[in-house]
Amino acid sequence: MSYGSAYDPLQSNHRHQVYGNEDPAFNQSTGFITPARHAKKGTSNWIKFGIPVAVLVIAAAVVGGIVGSRHHSSSSASSSSGDSSAAAAAAASSASAKLSQGIFVEATNSFYMIPVYPSVTDTALFGTPTLNAASKTWPTDTFAPAAPAATSVRPDRPRLIAPQYKWDALPALIASDPYMASWNESIFSNASQYDALPAVKYFMDGDSGILDVARQVKQRVKAFGYVYRMTNDTHWVDRTWEELQNAAGNGTVSWGPDEDRWNSAHFLDTAELSAAYGLAYDWMYDMWTPEQKSMIISTLNLYGLGPGVQAYTNASDFNGWWKNNIQGNWNCVCNNGLTMASLAILGDDPSGNAQQLLGLTVDNANQNCVFAVSDDGTWSETADYWYFGSTGLAEMASSLMTATGSNYNLLKTNPDLAKTGLFHIYGTGATSLFNWGDNGPNKYTATANSLIFYGDQFDQPQYALFQRDHPWNMFWYNQQSSGGWWDGLALDHTFTNFTDQWMSMRSSFTDANALYVGVKAGTLQGHQTHNDLDVGDFVLDAMGTRWAGELGDGDYLSPGYFSNDEQNSQRWMYYRKMTEGQNTILIGATNQDVTAKPTINFDSSNTTQTASTEFTPPSDSTAFFTTDMTSAYFNATSVKRGIRLLNGRKQVLLQDEITASASVQWRMHTNATVTTSGTSATLALDGKKMDVSLLNAPDGATFSTSDAVRLPTDVTPPEADQPNPGVTVLLITLPAGTYNLQVLFSPEWNDGSTPVTPPSVPLDSWTLTSHSS
Ligand SMILES: *[C@@H]1O[C@H](CO)[C@@H](O)[C@H](O)[C@H]1NC(C)=O
Ligand SMILES: *[C@@H]1O[C@H](CO)[C@@H](O)[C@H](O)[C@H]1NC(C)=O
Ligand SMILES: *[C@@H]1O[C@H](CO)[C@@H](O)[C@H](O)[C@H]1NC(C)=O
Ligand SMILES: *[C@@H]1O[C@H](CO)[C@@H](O)[C@H](O)[C@H]1NC(C)=O
Ligand SMILES: *[C@@H]1O[C@H](CO)[C@@H](O)[C@H](O)[C@H]1NC(C)=O
Ligand SMILES: *[C@@H]1O[C@H](CO)[C@@H](O)[C@H](O)[C@H]1NC(C)=O
Ligand SMILES: *[C@@H]1O[C@H](CO)[C@@H](O)[C@H](O)[C@H]1NC(C)=O
Ligand SMILES: *[C@@H]1O[C@H](CO)[C@@H](O)[C@H](O)[C@H]1NC(C)=O
Ligand SMILES: *[C@@H]1O[C@H](CO)[C@@H](O)[C@H](O)[C@H]1NC(C)=O
C-alpha cells in the first residue's frame, strides 16, 4: 500500500498491518519527515534521515517563527484572559522562547513516534521545565458551579472538553505558538484526507470486534468537528452526518446486525462509538435539525447507552464484565464512552439512560479505572494498554470538568496516578518503547496525548513537555510550559511495585544513539492477561538501533490467546508469550512458574541530565538492577540475574548465576545478523556493530544461534505461531549444573572510547563501585 492512496480499513484492519499513527499529510505542509511504511527492521531508518531534517525544521522555525508573532502573543494573552500585564509578559516570553526553539519533529516511521531532538548546547533554550501557573493559557471558565454534580451540565455548548471560550481563544493561541500552529495544520490536513475517503466501513475482526473501525469513526468526528468549528463550513457537518448515518446502518452500505450494530459483546466498540456520537452531537449542536438530533439520540440509546444500562443493571448481561473489579483499560474506555455520550445528550434524552449512567460510571471508574496505575506509576497491563487506558481516563475527567465543573476525584482517588507520566517517559527508550507483553503500534485515538492533560492537572511540566502530538492538545495544552523536559531529570528510574519491578537506564534522553536498557522482573499474573512469562527480560538500544528486542503481541484471534493466566493456559503455548520467546533464562525447556514472586535490588549514581541536548555522563556514572528469580523456575534451586552499565554508560554487563537440575538456556532475540565464534559473537545491524563476549566462560559454554521458533519438544499450540522474520536468537545452551554466565555487550561506538573488561563480582556483592577499575 502506498501513501496518499485511500486508506482502506477493510484491507488493513489487523493491528499488525495497520500503522494508524503514520500520517502521510503530516510532512506536506510542515516539513516533517516523510514517513515510510514501517519495514521489518525499519526503526533505525528515521534516525539516518531524521536528524538532518530535524535541524532544518528547527532552523526554519527560528527564522520564520518569531517575526511578527510576538506582538500577537502578548496582546492575545492579555485580551483573551484578562490577566495582569505581568502575566501577559510572562506568557509572551514563554511563547517567544518556544518560537525560538521551534518544534521537535517526530520520527513518524518509528512505532511510537519517538521525538527527534536537535543538537543544541545553548542551555538557555532548554532550561528547567516550568509551568507558569500565574499566566494560564486559557481564559478562566465562567462556568464554575459551587456544588458540581455529574448530572448537572453547563448552560452553553459545547460541553465536552472544548467549551466555546476555548474555541474563542484558539486563533490567538495558534498565532503565538508553533506547536498549536502545527497541530491545527495537521488536524485540517487529516480532515481533508478523511473527507476524501468513503465512510468508515464495518469490519468485524473476530474477538477484536469492530474496535478499529469504531476508533476511526471517533477520530474522524473529532477532526470534522474541529474544522467545522474553526471555519463554520457546513460541509463538515454534512460529512459528519454521513459517518453517523453509516454507523447507524442507515448509509449506503451495511453496518452490522440490526439488533446490535455497535457490538455490545465487545463493549469497547460500543463505548468508542458512543463517544463519537456524543462528540458529534455536542460540537455541532447548533447545526443539527431537530429531526437529526432525535435520530442521533435514538441511535445512541439503541446501540450505545441502552446496552450500557443493561451492562450496569442486568445481572444476566455479561457485556458489562469490565465494571466488576477490572482495573485496566477496559474499565476506563467503557466508562468514558458512556460518560461522554451521556453528558452530550443529558437534558435532551427522553429515555433517562444518560441520567442513569452518569450516576454509575463516575463511581465505577473511581473504584476501578484509576487503580490500573500501581503505586510506582506503572500501568499494570503493559505499556501498550497505558495508551488506551490513560486516554480514556483523561477524556472522561476532562469531559466531566468542562461539562459539569468537577472530575469527582478521578485524578485524586489513586494518589499514585500522578506518577504515570514517569512510566511512559522511562519506558521510552532511545529507539522504541520497552514494550514487554502485548504491544503493537499505537493508533487511532489511543495516543500518549493524555500526558499533556496530566502534566497540566498534576503540575508536572515534564509530562507536558515530553509529549507534543495529537488532537486533544488543542484544548489540553498549557502554552506556558517551557524548558527542556530532560533538564535535571535522573537518567535512571526503578519501578518497584511487585507487580512489575522494572528499571530504565540510559546514557542520554536526547540522543537517538544513546545506550538504553530496560529490564524487568515482576509477577506473572494479574495483568489482565496481556503479559508474557518474562521475568528477567530486557531490551538494549545503542547507536540508534535496538539490539535486544521484544517480539510484541501475537495474533489476538488465536484460540486461547486470552484464556487465562494459569500455568496450563493456552496463551503460554504461543512462542511470543512463552518464556522461550523472551530475553531471559529458560530452564528445562519449560515455561516460568506463573506464581513467581521475584525480589529485586538496584542502585543508580542518580546522574541527571543537564539542559544541553548534547550530554555525556561522567565516567563513573552507572546503574544496576539484580533480581532473585528462583521462584520463577521449576527444577532450579537458585536463579539470579543482574544487569549493569559500565564505562560511563557505554557498555552493558548481564550476569546470571544459576543452579539447575534441568537444562539451562540463555536466550536473547535480535534483528541483527549474528556471527558466533566460541565465547564471542558479533552482531551487525543497520551498518553498526556490537561485540558480545562471554567472560570467564564455564566449561562447554559457547554462543550459538537459532531461529525464533518453538523448540521441537514443545506442545503444539491451537494455531500456528506468527513468524518472526529476520529475528535470530543468540543462545548459550548448557546441561543441568551450576553456572555463572557473564555476558558483556560492547557497542562499537567508533568515538575513540576504549571498551573495558570488568572484574568478576558475585551478584550479591554488586554495588555502584564494585566494577570500577
Ligand atoms: C492525524 O492523523 C494521524 C493518523 O491517523 C494521527 O496519528 C494524528 O494524531 C492526527 N493528527 C491530528 C492532529 O489529529
Ligand atoms: C489552521 O490551519 C488551517 C489549514 O492550514 C488554516 O487555514 C487556518 O488559518 C489555521 N488556523 C489558524 C487560526 O491559524
Ligand atoms: C462562525 O460563526 C460564529 C457565530 O456566527 C462567529 O462568531 C464566528 O466568528 C464564525 N467563525 C468563523 C471562522 O467564521
Ligand atoms: C437510522 O434509521 C433508523 C430507522 O429509520 C432511525 O430510527 C434512526 O434514528 C436513524 N439514525 C441515524 C443516525 O440516522
Ligand atoms: C437481561 O439480560 C438478559 C441476557 O442478555 C436478557 O435475556 C434479559 O431480557 C435482560 N433483562 C431485562 C430486564 O432487560
Ligand atoms: C502495587 O500496586 C498495586 C496496584 O496495582 C497495589 O494494590 C499494591 O498495594 C502495590 N504494592 C505495594 C507493595 O505497594
Ligand atoms: C526488530 O525490529 C522491529 C522493528 O523495529 C522491532 O519492533 C522489534 O522489536 C525488533 N525485534 C527484536 C527482536 O529486536
Ligand atoms: C540514588 O537515589 C536513590 C533514591 O532516591 C537512593 O536510594 C540512593 O541511595 C541514591 N544513590 C546514590 C548513589 O546517590
Ligand atoms: C523437572 O525435572 C524432572 C526430571 O528431569 C522432569 O521430569 C520434570 O518434568 C521437570 N519439571 C518441570 C516442571 O519441568
TrEMBL record:
Main location: other
One Pfam family named in its UniProt record: Hepar_II_III_C
Subcellular location: Cell envelope
Keyword Transit peptide carried by entry: no
Chain ranges of the Heparinase II/III-like C-terminal domain: 512-726
Any GO MF annotation of the entry: lyase activity
Transmembrane segments: 46-67
Alphabetic keyword roster: Lyase, Membrane, Transmembrane, Transmembrane helix
Superkingdom to which the source organism belongs: Eukaryota
The UniProt record lists the keyword Kinase: no
InterPro entries, per the entry: Chondroitin_lyas, Hepar_II_III_C
Name recorded for this polypeptide: Chondroitin AC/alginate lyase
Organism: Roridomyces roridus
Lineage, uppermost ranks: Eukaryota, Fungi, Dikarya, Basidiomycota, Agaricomycotina
